Amino acid sequence: MFDTMTLTKIAGGLFGTFLVFLLGGWVAETIYHAGGHGDHEQAYVIDVPDSGGGEVVEEVQVPFEELYALADAADGEGAFRACRACHALEDGNNGTGPHLYGVVGRPVDAVAGFDYSGALEEVNDVWTPEQLFAFLENPAQYAPGTKMSYNGMRSETDRVNLIAYLDSIDD
């Protein structure tokens, strides 16, 4: 079917094609960038009045108490979908992570039979809403060395809604 000469011709054709593209790219670079791009003045300049867009807008930090007062547990149920992969809501039903039934207000290492990493115990004693809020933003930064591999929830509204939902499930 194929002999050595045929394979040599095919390989030579492929290599020759790549060589043509390589040389073509080199010639195009030389042609289009030979003028020292940026060494000359623009041919036509559009004057744009300063709209004051250069001002730095400072983010307003809303206190946690105000955010938590406006929290919606129904929206928090939707935010819980990201947690459902590792955590369960039923009491005693541990997954990859401990169950979250009654998590708001309970001690950090209160779930019997779950092997905690110890990093959370060093940082915190009780899961208050404020502590959960800080933890959910970035678990690895809050408790370095934690086993939890979740990257965090950036939206403050989503975090307070999730905390309100978790607080509502244990009556």
Automatic annotation (TrEMBL):
It comes from Flavimaricola marinus. The lineage of its organism: Bacteria, Pseudomonadati, Pseudomonadota, Alphaproteobacteria, Rhodobacterales. This is Cytochrome c-552. Residues 71-170 form the Cytochrome c domain. Keywords: Electron transport, Heme, Iron, Metal-binding, Transport. Signal peptide: none annotated. GO terms for molecular function: electron transfer activity; heme binding; metal ion binding. InterPro entries: Cyt_c-like_dom, Cyt_c-like_dom_sf, Cyt_c_1A/1B. The keyword Heme applies. PROSITE patterns: CYTC. Coiled coil: none annotated.
